[in-house]
Amino acid sequence: MSGINPDGSLKKFFTPTPSSDIAIAASTGDLSALERLLTPTTVTEKDEHGNTPLVWASDCGQSAAVKLILDQTPADESINAKGYLGNTALGRAARGGHADCVALLLERDEIDANICNEKKQYPLHFAAFKKKTNCVKLMLESGKVDTCVIDRKGRTPAEDTSVDEIRDMILGYRDSNTTK
């Protein structure tokens, strides 16, 4: 299921809502339910939308739930898992401006901050386009993002924002890391 039409326009999709007990617990930050429901199997299980508990928690800005899930074994196996429309937990957290979740995810060695979704949108593009300055800053400071990734329209994250401060941060990071 590609998110791009043959003419290059984006397909319109419904917005999923969590329906399983573990997805609801992750998305609402119900830590007692999440602790009860999380097992080595359920921590990596995808629901009917393709989302793991980590994707739901990140999407909804539930940083305590993100931390709890990341502390579970084998959560490392799901940190880069793609959910609905190919979105990762980092992509969903960045899109929503959930800086606490972004920081927790970026702390993990296993994170790949440069995974695009089916619409060819990267986490840094999401944060830049949605004007989430704190998330952009965290991603740049992590040293884990590629500032030159290209979206489906041929734009880099610096070209995908209307905020001068964000554009300057990205270009400054790029310049300081290409001259070394």
From TrEMBL:
InterPro entries (alphabetical): Ankyrin_rpt, Ankyrin_rpt-contain_sf
Keywords on record: ANK repeat, Repeat
PANTHER family per the UniProt record, alphabetical: ANKYRIN REPEAT AND PROTEIN KINASE DOMAIN-CONTAINING PROTEIN, ANKYRIN REPEAT-CONTAINING PROTEIN-RELATED
Name this polypeptide is given: Uncharacterized protein
Organism this protein belongs to: Chaetoceros debilis
Source lineage: Eukaryota, Sar, Stramenopiles, Ochrophyta, Bacillariophyta
